[in-house]
């Protein structure tokens, strides 16, 4: 299964900042979208 480039970008930012909230602010997306991308299985 493969992850999309967008999912990888969201995960990397959340990992780097150690926070889904901070990653969401940095990427200008909602916090739930970060959480959803990180928790979804790869397609």
From TrEMBL:
What keywords tag this UniProt record?
A: Plasmid
Q: Which InterPro entries match?
A: LysR_HTH_N, WH-like_DNA-bd_sf, WH_DNA-bd_sf
Which Pfam families does the record match to this protein? HTH_1
Would I find Transferase among this entry's keywords? no
* Keyword Lyase in annotation: no
Name this protein carries in UniProt: LysR family transcriptional regulator
Source organism of the structure? Parasedimentitalea marina
User: Which GO molecular function annotations are given, in alphabetical order?
Assistant: DNA-binding transcription factor activity
Q: Residues in domain HTH lysR-type?
A: 1-40
